[in-house]
Amino acid sequence: MGLWRPSLLFSLCASTWAFTTPTNAPTYPHQLKARGTDGIATVETSKTLSLKNQINYDSDFTLSPIPLVSTTSEWAALISHADAIEKLHLKDLLQDPERSELLHTEHDGIFLDYSRQRVTAETLDLLESLASKQQLREKMDAMFRGDKINFTEKRAVLHTALRARLEDPRRPFVDGQDTVEEVHQVLEKVRDFSEAVRFGSITGYTGKQLRNVVSVGIGGSYLGPEFLHECLKTEPEGMNSALGYTLRFLSNVDPVDVERTCSELDPEETLVIIVSKTFTTAETMLNARTMRQWLWDFMGNDPDVVRKHIVACASTSATDKVRDFGIDTDNRFFQFWDWVGGRYSVCSSVGAVPISLIYGFDLFQKVLNGARNMDRHFLSAPLRENIPMIMGLIGVWNTSFLKYKMRTTLPYAEALLRLPAHIQQLDMESNGKHVTRSGQDVDYDVGEVDFGEPGTNGQHSFFQLLHMGQPVPCDFIGFIKSQHDLMVDGEKLSSHDELMSNFFAQPDALANGKNADTLRKEGVPEWQIPHRTFHGNRPSMSLLLPKLTAYRVGQIIALYEHRTAVQGFVWDLNSFDQWGVELGKKLAADVKEKLAVGRSGGQIKCDNPSSTRLLNHYVKFCEENDDDERGESLFKEGKKEKFAVQWPKGQNAFSKQPPATHHLKDHGKML
Ligand code: F6P
């Protein structure tokens, strides 16, 4: 009875949600409660919680506009405080020992130093007031509890349930279902399957061991798992467990990505994972059909080839589509749920299946343990000790008050090379919005442009701009111990120390800069001084962790998920929908129809002359220029040949030589 399920409380964390019941809507005994003027509206029902989820959000209540956060006194105080901060320089602020003592925190070995942000104790006080005005804690609770806070899609946001324990006394229920119970059922299935594949009791169609994994997916169905894979590749335990296995990702619908992915793979030893929450994403589904054909071409057009070589990770609501594809939905379908957003899905089967197949389930479990640890820290630590909260509030401060438009993620760890790309989707798809939850246009800046590269590579690429061009807040991430350190004979420091010297030097260079006087003292000629002056005062934060293990990667995953949520909660956005990607998808579908007309000799007409000209040029150029290889193979030999897939020659590693060229044969219609 300690669970949340029996609670008959239905809370919505919007400050002034208004509930209206249309005359034809079913009525439930309920009462409205309001906590304070800006408090949480709570509906208490006398039925079970599942009743809550029968409520149709469109017809049972509507949102009335709520004042923009920019109209609050807390916001105004921060605006005038920003004016005061503009007068201060980081090189002076950094000399203050009290401030330095205040602006760092530590959790479970993770050390966050934010003394190089353009903040003071007063900034923190004001941000804390803003967080409380925006009901940050209440919104977090609603998320963890499973309220349908992604209300435009009528979905709960429960990526935290993906790493919850069965013993957890406060397990969220959605539509009457125990989410954690369901999560653990799928995890068990992943464990059994991955162990059977790794022990060889599940083999491919021709009896060979499945040792190559190709994960087909895009966006959140790709970036998180790839990031995780890159981290574990050189993690000592990961390296050992992955011996003899390969994992590749096929994401882009570009046929060249297929070519690169399949190069030198033996299909008889390859397991394909189709990762798509919706199982409808155009790019993924074409790549899925391409991989299915690749397998059929080698092993014959037998439904069993698909059943033995292709598995799916998709949402439960896509079950029919998975079955229709030919996948064994009883044994080879690893579900997740509509309450897991794509960019928040790496802890679901989306990450669990590929990672467990290559590294073993136990290592993936350690990732979950790390993420759970960060979830608990986020929920329970006071604001000043709460790493995701501090990072999120500083994001709000930098974007909305100091007016920085960008932010860069700079891991001083090669194994984190795909973290910037993961964060880019996580944050930009979540907070790249122009309206508040109640649909009003924001009149304040939200959502940074996120980019990054591992240090020190970035230093020899875009750091020139960071130091002398547009200022961009920087997040430095480093580790005390390397996954693999090296000490070259005759060197005073290890290679990891060399790397980390840069990690420590760059934030000070950005903060302090270098002025004309110093340059003069160094003998720099006068004419060069303007070119060599660094203004400094460029903010950054430094996150220092003990060592990049699976557990720490889990913490990093959850930390950034929560940072993104904090910013969205304070900005009053719905950070969990992504309607912005729909228009492009729809137009691409329209263009496909037009291209089909062009390919069969028709004239393409679009709704503007530029597009009409461009598309006709694309089709005509192909027809009139057969001097490149693609033109020859595609257009000389008739329709079937037109879509032939080329595979490389000379794959000597295979006992059975794959044919040099594959054609669609009889199953061309399935592509
Ligand atoms: O790009 C839009 C998007 O919906 C992302 O949010 C998602 O991660 C990606 O496409 C892939 O979607 P799916 O997993 O349904 O194939």
UniProtKB/TrEMBL annotation:
Its EC number is 5.3.1.9. Residues 662-671 have a biased composition (Basic residues). It catalyses: alpha-D-glucose 6-phosphate = beta-D-fructose 6-phosphate. Gene3D superfamilies: 1.10.1390.10, Glucose-6-phosphate isomerase like protein, domain 1. SUPFAM superfamilies: SIS domain. One of its GO terms (biological process) is glucose 6-phosphate metabolic process. PANTHER family: GLUCOSE-6-PHOSPHATE ISOMERASE (PTHR11469:SF1). This is Glucose-6-phosphate isomerase. It comes from Triparma columacea.
